[in-house]
Amino acid sequence: MANTKSAEKRARQALKHRDRNRGHVSKMRSAVKRLRATVAGGDQAKAQAMLVDTLAVVDATAGKKVIHRNAAARTKSRLSKAVASIK
Description:
Layout: H1 5-41, H2 44-63, H3 69-84
Helix pairs in contact: 1-2, 2-3
């Protein structure tokens, strides 16, 4: 438990930030799952259209410092590669 006023405030802020960050991560993971399902279905045109939106969500999550920029780059690379591999 926090012993000082400033530590108590930081604990309150940490709870708010955690809730907010979980929302951003959840939104990103859902977008990635939807894209991967489309890729598995083999629909190139739909996957290509979804890729743009999904990459924007990943970039926004990294821009808010919720995930590391290298993790975002890795995710974007893997998604792009998966969409490109659809025959």
